[in-house]
């Protein structure tokens, strides 16, 4: 495993998001991973920050709301493409995705949430802020397109404390 600087992979991460990634979180004895295709990478509070969004209805929301960290694993070589699709169609309420899809959680010292070893690029993030969306502040265009069912997101801000690449 090689540690990189966020600037070395930021463009790759932004380009990979539409193909999906795995957001993994562990808290209070619960572990889950879910597919994501939306995130924001930037600089806030003079720190590299990755923001991810989790809908209220998702099992991951139950886990991440008390978490101190999260990870995002990418499949830049396409190895996880099928797994990402499966994780996006099944809920952690119903199955243990790690057992069902033979995923290996790998831990970084001092971080509760593991990354997915089968991925090849990982962002390890320490939670620094959470914000529940306020529907009245959204544009009608966004509300009408993405929130017809009123299933809004909480936005989680994670300081990227490690960037790891499988060699």
From TrEMBL:
<feature type="domain" description="Flavin reductase like">
    <location>
        <begin position="22"/>
        <end position="163"/>
    </location>
</feature>
<dbReference type="InterPro" id="IPR012349">
    <property type="entry name" value="Split_barrel_FMN-bd"/>
</dbReference>
<dbReference type="Pfam" id="PF01613">
    <property type="entry name" value="Flavin_Reduct"/>
</dbReference>
<dbReference type="GO" id="GO:0010181">
    <property type="term" value="F:FMN binding"/>
</dbReference>
<dbReference type="GO" id="GO:0016646">
    <property type="term" value="F:oxidoreductase activity, acting on the CH-NH group of donors, NAD or NADP as acceptor"/>
</dbReference>
<dbReference type="InterPro" id="IPR052174">
    <property type="entry name" value="Flavoredoxin"/>
</dbReference>
<protein>
    <submittedName>
        <fullName>Flavin reductase domain protein FMN-binding protein</fullName>
    </submittedName>
</protein>
<dbReference type="InterPro" id="IPR002563">
    <property type="entry name" value="Flavin_Rdtase-like_dom"/>
</dbReference>
<comment type="similarity">
    <text>Belongs to the flavoredoxin family.</text>
</comment>
């Amino acid at each position: 495993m090689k540690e990189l600087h966020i600037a070395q992979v930021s463009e790759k991460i932004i380009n990979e998001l539409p193909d999906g990634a795995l957001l993994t979180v562990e808290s209070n004895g619960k572990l889950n991973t879910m597919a994501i295709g939306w995130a924001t990478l930037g600089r806030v509070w003079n720190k590299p920050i990755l923001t991810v969004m989790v809908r209220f209805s998702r099992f991951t929301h139950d886990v991440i709301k008390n978490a101190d960290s999260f990870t995002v694993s990418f499949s830049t070589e396409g190895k996880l493409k099928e797994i990402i699709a499966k994780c996006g169609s099944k809920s952690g309420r119903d199955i243990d995705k790690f057992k069902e899809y033979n995923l290996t959680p790998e831990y970084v010292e001092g971080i509760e949430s593991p990354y997915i070893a089968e991925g090849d690029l990982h962002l390890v993030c320490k939670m620094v802020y959470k914000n529940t969306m306020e529907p009245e502040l959204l544009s009608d265009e966004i509300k009408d397109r993405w929130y017809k069912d009123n299933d809004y997101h909480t936005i989680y801000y994670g300081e990227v404390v490690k960037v790891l690449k499988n060699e």
